[in-house]
Structures are given as C-alpha cells and as structure tokens.
Batch of 2 targets.
Target 1
Amino acid sequence: MFYREAGDFKTSYQSDQATFTLRLDKILFWGLMAIATFIVPFFVTEYWEKSVFLPFFIYSIAALGLNILTGYCGQVSLGTGGFMAVGAYASFKLMTGIPNLDMFLVIMIAGLVTALVGVLFGLPSLRIKGFYLAVATLASQFFLVWLFNKWEWSYNYSPTGQINAPTRDFLGIDVTGPSTAPWATYLFCLGLLFIFAWITRNLVRGHIGRSWMAIRDMDIAAEIIGVNPLIAKLSAFAVSSFFIGVAGALYFSVWLGAAEPTEAFAIDKSFDVLFMIIIGGLGSILGSMIGAAFIILLPIFFKNVLVGYCGIPTDIAEFTQIIFIGALIIFFLIKEPHGIVAYWRTLKEKLRLWPFPY
Amino acid sequence: MFFLDPFFYEILISGLLAGVMYALVALGFVLIFKASGIFNFAQGVLALFAALTLVGFQTGQIPFAHLLSLFGLHATHWGAGFPTIVALLFSLGVMVLLAWLIVQIVLKPLVNQEGIILFMATIGLAYVLEGVGDLMWGANVKELNIGLPEGPSEIILDATDMFIDKLEISAAIVAIVLVVSLTLFSQYTKMGRALRAVADDHQAALSVGISLETIWWIVWSVSGLVALVAGVMWGAKSGVQFSLSLIALKALPVLMLGGFTSIPGAIVGGLIIGVGEKLFEFYIGPLIGGATENWFAYMLALLFLLFRPQGLFGEKIIERV
C-alpha cells in the first residue's frame, strides 16, 4: 500500500522529529515546491501575480506571525494592521534614505524595527490577559495609524501623505517599482514565505516554541515549572511582529507599490489576519496558509463566479458574498472548531488506514 | 486656570453626554458577556440592523426589494409606512426573533467551546447580519427621525451660554431610564434572578432547573433591545449607514475601563472616556496634530489596565493552577 509507515524505519531522534515523517508526504511537498518554483514562474501573468499569488504569500507570512503570538503563545492580538504599517513605513524610509540597499536587507531591517515596536506594545501583556489584552492591542492599531498620518517625517513630507515605492532590486533583479516582471516578485515572495515557514517550524519545535506553548496552555503553571513569562511573552511578540513587519513591508513595496495609512492599514486588516488563523487553525503552519487562502481567494472566486458567470449586479453579489463568508465561518466553527487544518489531519489519518476502517 | 474657561464646562458636559452614548453600546456587550461569557463582536452590527429595520418599517420599504428586482419586481415601497411607535414595536419583535435564531443556529451547537471560538462565531454572525441588513433594506444612507427634539437647547443657551444638543440630552435620559429598568429587572423579577444565577455559575443554574436556552434567548433579546435603542440614538445623530456598526469599536475601551462584567462599570467607563477624550482633544490635541479621538480612549484604558487588570468594577481575577 502507499502512504504507510511500514518499512520506513527511524533510527535517530532527528528522523523521528522530521517535519514529514512519511515518504509520500515528503515527495508531495517537494514536488509541489518544485512546480511552484520552476514551472509556475513561466506562466504567471500580471493578473495572477497581483490578485492571487502576492496577496496569498504576503498574508500567509502575516498569518504565520500572528499564529506564533496567538496560536502558539496564546496572546490574542488585534494590532496586526498597525504593525504592518510600521513595517511598510520602515521599508519606505530605508528605500528612500539608502538608495543602494538590497531589497532583502530592506525587508529584514523593516522587520527588526517592527519587532522593537512589537515588544514595546507587548509589555502590557505581562499584566493584562485574555480579551482585555485583545482590546488593549487595538490601542497600538489606532495609535500607529494615527501616527503615520500626522508624523510628516514618516512619509517624507509628501503633500498627499501617500508613500510610493521606488524601484529597488534583489541581487540585481527589480522587485519593486512600476517596471517589475511578475515572475520576479512571485519568486521573491515565495522564497520569503518558504524561509519564514521553515523558521517557524524550527522555532516551535525547539526550546523557545515549547515555552510559548507552556505559557499558552496555562501561564501560572508554566511559570512554576520554570518558564520565564517575561522572556516567553516578549519573544513571542518580537518574533510575531518581525514576521508581520516583513509582511507589511512586502505588502506596501512589492504588492501595492503605494499606500496611505488610513486605507491600507485599517482595522479590518487586523481582523482579516485574525480570521485567517482561526479559520485555518490556531497553532498550525499549514493552517495559517490555508486560512490566508480562504480569506483572500474565496472573495475573488465568488466575485468571478457571481458577477462574471451569473451576471448578478455587483452590489448584490457583494452582499451575498459577505453573508456567505460569515455563514461559512459559523459553519466551520460548529463542525470543526479547530480550523480547516483539522480536516486535513483527519483525512491523513483515514488515508493511512485505507482501505481498512481501523 | 482651565476651570475658569467657559469652554471647559461646555466640553465637560458634551463629553459626559457622548459618554452616555458610548455606555449605551457597551451595555449590550456587558449583558451578553455576563450571562454567557460570550464576547459579542456583533453588537455594533446588531445596532445597525435594528436601526435599518426601524427605518424600513417607518418608511414602508419592501424587504429585499433590490433582490426582487432581479426577478422583475420593481416596487420598492408599500403604500405607506407604519407610525413610529408601531415601527418600534415591530423592530423589537424582529430583534427577539433574531435572538431566537442566533441561539438556536449559532450558540446551541457551540455550547462548552472556548471563548475565542465563540468570539469568532459572533464575528461570522456580524458578517451575516451586515450582508442581510444591506440586502434587505439597501446600503444607502438613511435618515432616521422618530420625533426626538433636535438642535441646541435654548433654555441652556440663554441661561449659561453653552451649546448643548437636545438630542444628546434625550439620549442621556433614555439611557438612564434603560439602566434603571434593567437593574430593577435583574434585581426584583424571577427572570432577572435566573439571569444572575446563570451569570454566576452555568452548571449550578442548570441543576436548579433554569433553562440555559431560554435564558440565552432572553439575554440576546434584551441586548437586541439595547442595540435598538443605541441604533436609534446614534442613527438619529449621524444617519443610518454602515459606519453605525463601527460604534462597537468605541465601546471596547469603555468595556475595558469599566470591566466586562459590570453594568455600573459600563456607565462610569463611558463617562470617563467621553469626558477624557473631549478634554484631551481640546487641550492637548492641537499641539500634536489633532484627531486624537481615535486612539486616546484605548491608550487611557491601556494605562488604566496596567494598574487594575480587571477594569474598574470587574470581578477580581483569581487564577489557580
């Protein structure tokens, strides 16, 4: 039979802890990666790049970041939009201040700046818990967006208050600005998503990830067995904000190319990312990506089907789409409170035993 | 000195009145959170939905007219609308029906789930209600007029030279009446006692024969009523439109400040936030670029929570391993 552990002997701790323990999983994953890296770039068009792939990759990174904080460390945050704005504005200042800086470095430094801001806004988490914390993080959302509206230095005194991404390259290939090739930005974001998913995977199965999960499951008990809540919570805030800052920088510089704080980083961004991880699955890397796909791609799909094929007027299609997404969220929560990724796990369990029921 | 400034008192009073409006929204949250431990994100949309329904009944709109026009039916209005009082009663009926549907369809299957799951479910609910409301009554901005007095109050203007909107005064009166009657209801009626029992301990309440389902239905109906009142007041102030549902965001810092579980907390929190943000905007706002109302309430609540993590009147959080 296929998809079995039988005959696949593990002789070391490393192989026992591997991400893909079944050979078929490994083949499937690397096959998918190979297709995404070597075949898709030849066919990717501007439409697919701008409205499907880039949003999916960038929101996946943001969802991974929030999942570290909320899914693994148990601290609900509604400040994602504000932190994305920090990443975006940091990258803008870097791009305009140091013209020759490589885009990869710009993104990383923007992430670091966001991590610092994230730690600052994470400090209240040491005293405030649960829903009180969720609402407290809204303070960062509103304050940061207001700050980037009023602080003229942050947008280089441009009269409109808008920021525009100049052309910058990664290893000599343009990835921002108006004249980029779809395959270049596609590969750039795909690569970053791969790197961040890999980092997350290795963080959460190591010492730091285990201390996050201990804090999530019960913070007092974790403290008693020797987890330092200060370090665990603040490191979760730092890593999570780093990811979200990177996502924000990519969102502004690579995807949109221009941004304005009240529209681009509004409160609904924070909610969207939170929906992604709850729908996809809290505390799951695959779940973050499934959630991002669900929230980003489903509206596009609906719009195309309802308006394009059925010829329903745009406004009615929009309302139906809102109702449908809301109903789907409720449906999934009732049927599977642990997110779509739980279906995937059940499916894999079933497949391992197939065709026998037990 | 600032308290000799005539503007100070005007700002103080308008802040207090605005605070009452915030408290009105926060009240709906507190009722549901106390009785079922659910953080009801849909409260703002509930207020929008209630106001839309009221306007619809008042002006005699045909529900789903826009959708029906797809099938060739182009009428948008019945002959005439209902008088205000009838429309109010009908809207209340719709809210009670809606509460029953929510409990049966959404909450019953989710009994015993974690708080975050229920919170998420109310977000889904907010989406559905928003879509249904728009589809039923149309998404255009509507005027809401139920005959409340409007404009600056002449008596106060003559006596003290201050501009106070009559609408805000009536909102404050309505809010006070609402709070007093809710308190009386929960203290002195059998139903109210059952509500408090459920809030105290679900399982103990079940064991003495209180039906959780009925209690939830009542609680959601009552917060539907609060949503209707909040929707009417805010709708009369700034028109009935999508942004009405965002008043929920205004109520969140009020909740944090007052505590999620306390009705007096919602009122006092609302007043503190209302006054605080008006004064801050007036005295400090111009120095740092203005429009501070968006975040000041949150920052105030955040600083406050650092010293009292359960809010002003919230139950003391006791943690055990």
Note: The mean pLDDT of chain A is 85.
Target 2
Amino acid sequence: MMASRRGGPAMRLGGLVRKEFLQIVRDPSSIAIAFVMPLFLLILFGYGVSLDADHVPVALVDEAPSADSTDFLASLAASHYFAPVHARTVTEAEAALRDGRVNAIVHVRANFAERLRRPDGAPVQVIVNGVDANTARLAQGYVEGAWGSWLARRATERGQALTTPARLEQRIWYNPEVKSRHYLVPGLVAIIMTLIGALLTALVMAREWERGTMEALLVTPASMSEILLGKLIAYFVLGTGGMLLTVGLAVFLFHVPLRGSFWVLWACASLFLLAALGMGLTISTLARSQFVAGQIAIIATFLPAFLLSGFIFDIDSMPAPVRGVTHVILARYFVSIVQTLFLAGDVWSVVLPNALALALMAAVFLGITWRKSRKRLE
Amino acid sequence: MSAGAVLTATGLAKSFQAGKRRVQALDGVSFSIEPGVVTGLIGPDGAGKTTLMRLAAGLLTPDAGTIEVLGLDATQDSLAVQAALGYMPQRFGLYEDLSVRENLDLYADLQGVPRAERQARYDELMRMTGLAPFMGRLAGRLSGGMKQKLGLACTLVRAPRLLLLDEPTVGVDPVSRRELWAIIDRLIRGEGMSVLLSTAYLDEAERCAVVVLLHEGRVLDQGPPQALRERMSGRIWAVSGAGRRHRDLQLALDGRPGVVDALVQGEHVRLVTDAAADARGLLRDAGLTDARLMPLPPRFEDSFIDLLRALGEPDTAGLEMDGVAQDASENGDTVIQVDNLRRRFGDFWAVDGVSFEVRRGEIFGLLGANGAGKSTTFRMLCGLLPASAGSLRVAGLDLRHAAAEARARIGYMSQKFSLYGNLSVTQNLAFFASAYNLAGKARTERIAWALREFVLSAYAEQLSGELPLGYKQRLAMACALMHRPEILFLDEPTSGIDPLARREFWRRINALARAGVTVLVTTHFMEEAEYCDRLAIMAAGKILATGEPAAIKALARTLAHPEPSMEDAFIRLVEGDAVQERAA
C-alpha cells in the first residue's frame, strides 16, 4: 500500500461520524438521554408540574349566615381557584389548616352584614398557610380579587358607585390564560439540549478514555480535531433531533403557540447546541471517568440550566449576587430566546443580544476544548 | 546503537504523580530494536512497560532523554510516527458495541486504506486470525482470545512497519496465546514487520529474538534470551529423594545461602544455585546428603530471578507462619465437597456441573483462562453467590443453609485485593478484624501478629492505596487471615506481581498448608499449577481434568513429546474438549 494512495481527512472524519452514530443507535443509555429523558420531562412539566394555583382548599367560616355573607362566600366557592370546605367555627377551621386539609381560612364575623353598611366597611379575616410561599401569595391574591369583584358587583346591582378613587384595569399579554405550562414547555427545549449537548457528550468522551479506545484512536493518523469534530457532528445531529422532538410536542401536543419564526428558533438552537457541546467536550478534557464527568456535567450544566436560567424561577427576583451568576449560565440566554419566540414572536431586541451571548460562549468553550485537547495522554 | 534500528531510546526518564508520591516510571532507559524481529519488553506490573510503549507511540512526552522511531523523533513528530506504526493498547482499543466488520471499517477509514483494497486485506486478516465466521458479531460478544485477535487485526488493516503490542497476552487463554504468537511469526516472516511486545509472562521471553528486561523503570539487562539463559547453565538442578516430600525439600533449601531459587516442580524441587556455589555442598549443608541431584537446562526465568536477587535484599520472609490455624486437627479429612455445582447468568452457564473434593491442609488449584468460571466457582464456595444447582459443603456446613456460619471459618482474598485505599495499613487490619468480631485485646494482638508475620511494620501508617503492589497483596492476605480461618480462598492472588514477590507469596501459602490451613487458589499462570498438591483444569465452566500436577501433565505425554509442560497439557485438554463438542 503506497502512502500516496492513502485516504485523507474526509475518509477519517466519515469513519468517525459513522462510528458515533452506530454507537448512539446501539447504546441504550444514549437513547435514554436523547429521547426517553426529554419525553419524561415533557410529560412531567406538561401535565404534572404547574405553578398555577387551582382548586386551593379553603375553609369558609361564617359565624352568622346572612344574605350578604352567604352571597360573598358563594362567590368564592364558584371560582375554580378554590375548593371550599365549610367549617362551623374558627377553631375547627384552624384545626383543618394545621392538619393540612386546607391552605387558607376565610373568616366572616357575625356582624358582617351590619358593618358592611357602615362607612368604614366590614373586615373579612383571611388566614393563609405561608409554608408554601407561592401558593400562599396566590391564595391571598385570589381572595382579595374575589372580594373586590364581589363588592363591585354588589354596587352595580344596587345602582351605587363604588367609592374607590382609582381602578386597576388588567390586561395580560403574550400568555393571556396565564398558563405556566406555556412558558415551562418552551424552556424545556433548553434543558433537553443541555442534557444531550453537555451531559451525553461528556459521558461518551469519558467512556472512550475509560475503555481505552481513545488511546487506540490517538495513535491512528486521525488528528485530535478530527476526533472532536466527529463527536461534534454526531451529537449536533442528535441534539437537533431532541430539539425538534421537544418543539414538535410543545406545539402539537401541549398546544403552546409558536408565535415567532421556526427558522430563527432553529438558528438560535444551533448556536446554543454548539455552546453546550463545547461545554461537554471541555468537561471531558478535565474528567476521564464517566462517573466524574457525569457529576461535573450535572452540577455545572444541568442543574444551573434548571434553576438559574429563568426556566422556572424568575431571574429578576433573584438576589443580586445570584443574578450576577446567571450571566455565565448558558441556558439563561437560550431560555429567554425560546420563551420570547414561542410566546411573544420575533422580538429582535431580545433575540439578538441573547444570540450574541450564545455565539460568544460557543466560541469560548470550543476554543478551550481545541486548546486543551492535545494528542497526548497527559 | 545500530544504524538500522527501528526504535532507539536514549536515557529516557518519565515520572508521574500518584497521590502524594511521585512515581518514577522510567529512569534512564536506553535500548534499540532491530528491524524484522520480535523484541520483548519483559517485566512485572509497574516496571514501566506501558509508559515506554506510550512514549514510543508519541502519546507521552519524556521528562528527559529521546526516543526515535522509524527515523523520526516520537515526541516532536508524533503525528508522522503515529501514521507509520501500529499500536495495540492493553485493552485492544475495540468498540464493543460495533461488530467485527464495523471495527475493521473504522480503523481502515482512520488509516486511510483505499476502499478497493480493503476486502483483500480483510480476507487475509480474517484468515490469519480465524475470525472470518464472526464478521457480523459485536466485538463485545467475542471471547477474550478473539477480542485480542480482532484488536491485532485492527492495528494491521494497513501493514505498519513497526508494531507495538502492549501486553497482548494478559489474561488470554494458552491456546489463544499460542495462536497469537503464530500470527506474529507470520507477520515477521511474511511482511518483514518489526515488533515490540511487552509481557509479564517470562516464558514468552523465549519466543523473542531479543529481550529488554525492565524492573522498576530501569533496564536490568538486554540481549538474546538464549544468551541470558546460557549464563545460568550448570546452575540448575532437579533435587529429589532423601525420603522427603517435595515441599519439605523445598523448605529445607529455600532461603539458604547459595540458593538463588528453589521451586516445587512436578515430583522434584528445581534448584538454582549461586554462580559460586556447589550444589552438592549445598545439599550437604542442608542435611540432604542422600538427595538425588540431576542437572536441568536453564530457563529464561532463572536468569531474571538471578538478576533480581543480585539487586536486592535477601528475603527469607514467610518461611514459617505462626498463629494461623484455629485448630491443627488431623490432615486428610474432606473439608470442601462440591457436587455437580452449576451457576447461570441469564442464558449462560458460567459454571456448568463442577465436582471436586479438597482435603484438609491441601493446596488445591483451579487453573483456567479468564472467563473459565474460576471466580464464579469461588464466589459460590465463599457463600457470596448462590448456586443455581448442585450441592456444596464447606467445613462440614451446607452453604445453602449456613452461609454465614461457613463464612466465619473461611478467609477470602479477592482478585482486586478489596482493600480500603484511603485507610492506612493498620486501619485496614483493624477494620477486617472487627468485621470478623475481634475486639479489644484479641484485636490488638491480631494486628500486631499481621504486621510482624507479613513484614508490614515499616508501612503500618501508610495508606494502603499507595503501597507497592507486592505489599498490597501481603496486606490483603493478612486481612483474610485475621480470624484464623480454616480455609483460605485466593482468587488470582499473583497476577501482575514480580517473580520474587510471587515466590515469597507461595512460600507463605506453603507455610499455611503446613500449619493445617486448606488453601484454594485460582490462577492462570501455568507454572503456578505445579505448586499445588492437586488441581482442576477449567474451561468454559467445566472441569476437564482433576489430579496431581504430574498426573495431569502425563495426560499430554506422547512419544514425540515425553516431557510435556503444564501448558501443553492444558492446551491438549482444551482442544480435546473442543473436538468432543464438535463431534457431539
């Protein structure tokens, strides 16, 4: 065999990419991370987890039922936000709150009807279980809202003007039904691509070191950049597949509207995927055992993508130092892009700066990988 | 250094950080290898063989010195060197979830073999390795020997000028080992290839044209193995008679001044004397005047032992052992009885109808390649794994019903030593003592005993993970003996340790047996089988033969081959079994 007739970089890269795909297809753990986990997360967040309070169990205590008090409490009971439980005394209601059977108590005193007619008005006592702060605030808000609308309705019925100096007129844009699913499901695209790009890639690279196959690859004429490129191409395709699966299910199964352009979403997702792959490969230059690589990838990429990206928890309400940290979290930029593209449309003032940040981070991580991976075992 | 050398190392040094210690893997190594022959890189684990291979492949940068491969500097021009050589790392570099053909395709792509030429090359390689019927099988489903051959085929898809093989025969059965050597011979004769092969098996040295002996990062000696061997001629003797059993003879000779080596081999003791010593005089001093003395031809291992002894401390450790057995009751009664033992994993019978008996104070060996079912049998005997079928009684107890009780009377040393690497030697001993319900004064005494008997006092406070391999093995054995077990199970206790440490280890085993402890040992070292009283040869979950070493060797005796080795016997048994399978 003459050296001059030897196949070149294209043949080597082709062989490496083919090998990656064969391994992905045959390895149940790749399939699990690339397709089963996304499905699981989608179903969990699409159907299971909801940040909206719905049917909050509330104890209603009416010390002396009158027409007014019955009418007010009935308006609460009619709302789908509440699941009312009637209690005869406050003591009984408090016991129910302590046992966790109800989350809030609405207490109407015996003199309700009488004080309602006085100028200083009638107090309604609301006791909320504050352990789950989110539900507590929601419950409190809903009761206040119900109280306000009941008063307004009562005033109109009697042909009186409601004596409030200013009125709040609410309009909710982009997600008029205020469904948390509508912003959780698009955010999942970021989580799932982090899993494939960073976790799976770090694991499969570490596996090559662990099983000694990397050593064999290194002594072939293939250069380190070809070996890395082979991984990059294969997992880029896999990640794009995960993205399409998630977006498809979001739109067709969960009916989340995609108001922006699919192609803009595609382009941004590709940038994000490159950056995530860069992180995965960077991790694999540090950790050569699957166990350590998995640990680092979960702590450095998956958990931050979950907690600090704005996927669930609003970044603006985080304390300043934590907010500072979110700027180095890759998923943060992509989460705001997907949430905007899905719910608001092609808002370039949001998409462009975030896309720029993604491009920058992709360049940094791929650059580190390039520099760090020498064709050596040390 | 010869002008035609394909590889020349000059003053190579390389060290690594291991925990808090800095390990000098190579320390001023110089040698060169000639084209068109096999050069053997011989040494125990930790001698620096793999480091040297990786330096030659341009995968590591030396701290000092240079290494030139095929006229190129392996460090500077690593890409060019890698394009010209073939390298098979220890674990063969195979993708287990790819089929045989897919593995070949990958390496052909990486080596840039033109597609038009591939089929012819594959055919040739498959003929050479006998893998043709398995082209579609996943590499992970191949046996150890077949994996090794596929690994070799992958490095040969484009015929390299220099082939580096890092311990290609470790853990592979003797039949596959023989086949591998046949392939290497063919490559050298047919394709004019040069081969550098590393191995810890000293008997493989004899197959090399030139050997480089490595020990603790230094070159002990180099040259044709015959030359090294011939140095020992006139110093090797078979000692027998004097009305003593061979093991007592060995005990009387081992460690005496003038004795380089004394090993039980078959019916006699193989004695290697000092260059200056007179064998007759030696026997007289040992009180063995009426022993028969017969000269034997030297083996390669003799010269290695001789070189190692010249390096270091005389060691007589482990000749006698006190405080081991719980009660020194009469030898000879049956303590282990295994009847038609079977164990299944999924649809695969790892152990398939094994029966044998072991008597008290006996050293019983299970000999077989990796995957023969030795460790599975062991785990069942120790009550660590339930049997799928069959009966087994250990120390008079049925393991199916009294596993915990039986376990208190046995000691077990696993293949990987099972020590806590981040605990010190003393802490490890204390832990294992407590695990066997020793407390207070009894425990303190036992720890002191272990440190004394196993010469571990100097290392008492060192972390066990940082001990040299030979000391780890001693510690593991001490841990297994903390509760004075009647029966000791040793699973591949000697793999990878150097020949001197191995001798010392067998001395301890002998001492234990003399003290009435029954010892069961698994090994894939053929020559170690000779040290056992009786042994069973295992392959594919079955016992092919049981008996005394001499009787087993006799099974392979033919007119053409009147003095077969244990390996000959093993190969004959395995091949005979394969023939029967095919006939059935």
Note: Chain A has 14 helices and four strands.
